[in-house]
Design goal:
The complex is a heterodimer of chains A (270) and B (376). Chain A is α/β, with parallel strands linked by helices. Chain A is built from eleven helices and five strands. Chain A folds into two domains: 148 residues, Rossmann fold, CATH 3.40.50.700; 93 residues, no CATH class. In chain A, helix 3 links the parallel strand 3 and strand 4. In chain A, helix 10 packs antiparallel against helix 11. Chain A is globular. Chain B is globular, with a radius of gyration of 22 Å. The model of chain B has no long low-confidence stretch (mean pLDDT 95). Chain B has 376 residues and is of the alpha+beta class. Chain B folds into two domains: 229 residues, no CATH class; 124 residues, no CATH class. Chain B has 13 helices and 16 strands. Chain B starts with 5 loop residues before the first strand and ends in an 8-residue tail after the last helix.
């Protein structure tokens, strides 16, 4: 039986730090299996060779922050059978979504000597806000084994095994001691989706929420506890406004805290 | 069977661990790791948390120092023996496709046993027997659990210093277990005298005591052990009123109190994953990119995750309200109808390790309309 052509994979970059694309190159041991399973047709980070579309799988990194981005993403959707967004930028707007709480005109005039050369949107938004996305892979950065699982599941025609429960499940399975309970360390693990392997709590640090909200987040209840552990209202706003600031549950909670009466140094709620 | 109560000195405890190891047991006992009591394999009693106590309350756990040099002077640790007998992640089988396309399956082997579980609290001892009933005594026996459990020697210990979240006395599992052990130690420290009064529960336990040449306990030693158990029973940090508890839970199926709990509950799963009797798992298949190798794993799961009750069309329990109700009602009520016993052993871990301190005894008391003993 002649070998069927391999599925064509493209990797696209929007506003991002490239870290999630690097997770693919970081696969090292599995890289040979990956190139054996898919034809890497477009991946400027890895190769200059470009194979024209259409593509079977498009991995999209980064958020939409410019008018060009907002058009280009539709072209990618049009020539891709499957679109998988990878990382906090692509799935929630990334750290650059903090601009959504600021004034873009002010930034433009302060940061750039010639702001007239700059073409930008006032917001940083997730890819899913612009096109239909087939699968969103969370993380800042993504976990390379989760990426391999998404690719393998697609190639094998099965559902990807990407859990949406909290980081606490990973901590307990690993035998980690709960850092907020045993050390009083503030931790976003209870409201954050698993996937990192509970990386920070495994080193006695609190979770920073890199994988965004879990499927049933109760951020207000966790905020009460974080404040009881000694954080100020503003501190709690800040921990929700990092890589996944624009993820629904985190945005809603930081805005709720913002709107509470009392002094605050943070920017105004949207 | 000899039911004579024995005594061991500290050196006797040391020899006990040596004897168990010489007999081929993997000895699992409390140790200190990352600021908590954690059960782990030990080679000597020097690895036990000597002079360590604990302080527990809702969402609060700290180790403390004890001046008396006790080996077992703390209450329930971070986990029961569940991770030993019913591990969080278990390989069920591995499979491989060969060049001809044939798929061969290689079953997983259970390694590490037989286990001698040392320092098991009354609550956790009862939990093991609950797991025996649930996992091995019904229609289909869980082969993986049964293999780990086979030949396991159970050496319990009286909880002399219950924690703020303990309520074993309410559910009758402690502080001193009355059955279900091979040997049951009570640590008695009086001045310079440091002994372990050993109740013998089985022939096997008696034989080990004989091999160690353990002396018969005196009336005074036995009385001292009784006093420790009696005092501890009076010093429980929590209390659970079990009167008609099953009917109370069923009668409150539509209580508005569930909304109150849901406003606090994080759906993080911690309560279920520290519970010594929770046994829910899910089975996960892992395959490599080439599709040539696959493996099947059983992992701890929790009724607090949305996916846990997912069936065609969606999750059965979409709201945290329904998940908490499901968990506590199963634990305190329907477990009884299902398995003929209560599912709660009073260890208090779900209270201590809940990141926001939701308290099973306080929630049950609230449903009853009575104030709870919760300190917080």
């Amino acid at each position: 039986m002649p070998d069927a052509p391999l599925p064509k994979l493209a990797v696209w970059k929007f506003s991002s730090c490239d870290g999630c694309q690097l997770s693919l190159l970081n696969c090292e041991d599995e890289l040979l299996s990956i190139v054996g399973a898919v034809h890497i047709a477009y991946f400027p980070e890895a190769t200059r060779a470009v194979v024209e579309g259409p593509y079977d799988i498009s991995l999209v990194e980064g958020s939409v922050t410019t008018p060009e981005d907002a058009e280009r993403i539709h072209e990618i959707r049009a020539e891709s059978k499957l679109v998988v967004t990878i990382g906090a930028c692509a799935t929630a707007g990334g750290i650059q979504a903090l601009r959504n709480w600021g004034d873009i005109e002010q930034y433009r005039s302060i940061v750039y000597a010639h702001p007239e050369y700059l073409s930008t949107l006032a917001t940083s938004t997730a890819i899913g806000d612009h096109i239909n996305v087939d699968f969103e892979l969370r993380g800042c950065p993504i976990d390379k084994y989760q990426l391999i699982e998404v690719l393998a599941s697609h190639l094998q025609g099965r559902r990807p095994r990407i859990p949406t429960y909290s980081v606490c499940v990973e901590c307990k399975r690993k035998g980690n001691i709960c850092v907020p309970v045993a050390n009083g360390t503030p931790c976003l693990g209870p409201v954050t989706q698993a996937g990192c392997g509970a990386l920070c709590p495994s080193f006695a640090r609190g979770c920073y929420g890199c994988f965004g909200p879990q499927d049933s987040p109760n951020a207000p209840a966790l905020s009460d506890q974080l404040i009881e552990l000694g954080m100020t209202n503003d501190d709690v706003i800040r921990v929700y406004r990092t890589f996944n600031a624009e993820a629904d549950a985190f945005r809603a909670e930081s805005n709720r805290l913002q709107a509470l009466p009392g002094p605050s140094k943070q920017g105004a709620a949207k | 069977m000899t039911s004579t109560t024995r005594t061991l000195k500290v050196e006797g405890l040391r020899k006990l661990v040596e004897e168990l190891r010489a007999r081929g047991f993997t000895v699992i006992a409390p140790t200190v790791r990352d600021g908590a009591i954690v059960n782990a394999p030990i080679e000597s009693i020097d690895q036990l948390p000597r002079g360590v106590g604990d302080q527990q309350d809702a969402a609060h756990y700290r180790l403390t120092e004890r001046a008396d040099g006790a080996y077992f002077g703390y209450a329930a640790g971070a986990q029961s023996m569940k991770p030993v007998l019913f591990p969080a992640e278990e390989l069920l089988w591995r499979g491989k496709r060969d060049a001809a396309g044939a798929f061969t399956v290689q079953p997983a082997s259970n390694e590490g046993g037989p286990y001698a579980l040392l320092g098991v609290r009354g609550c956790d001892l009862k939990a093991i027997h609950i797991h025996d009933a649930v996992l091995t005594s019904r229609g289909f026996s869980d082969a993986h659990y049964a293999a780990r459990r086979a030949g396991a020697l159970l050496i319990s210990v009286t909880c002399g210093s219950p924690a703020g979240t303990c309520f074993c006395a309410s559910v009758g599992t402690g502080p001193r277990p009355s059955e279900g052990y091979d040997l049951s130690l009570t640590e008695v420290i009086k001045g310079s005298s440091h002994t372990f009064v050993v109740a013998v529960g089985t022939e096997r336990g008696a034989e080990i005591m004989d091999a160690l040449g353990a002396s018969t306990a005196s009336e005074a030693e036995m009385a001292a052990a009784d006093d420790i158990a009696k005092d501890a029973a009076l010093n429980m940090g929590r209390e659970l009123n079990t009167d008609g508890l099953k009917y109370l839970m069923y009668a409150n199926a539509e209580s508005s109190h569930w909304d109150d709990v849901a406003s606090r509950c994080l759906s993080c799963t911690n309560c279920t994953l520290v519970c010594p009797t929770c046994f829910c798992t899910s089975v996960e298949d892992v395959s490599d990119l080439t599709g040539q190798e696959a493996s099947r794993h059983r992992v701890w799961d929790s009724c607090f995750s949305e996916d846990f009750s997912y069936i065609h069309g969606g999750s059965v329990r979409e709201s945290p309200r329904s998940r908490y109700r499901q968990w506590i009602t199963h634990k305190l009520a329907s477990w009884e109808d299902q398995f003929g016993m209560t599912g709660c052993v009073g260890c208090g871990r779900c209270i201590t390790w809940c990141p926001v301190g939701i308290d099973i005894t306080a929630e049950a008391a609230a449903l009853r309309g009575t104030p709870s003993k919760a300190r917080k």
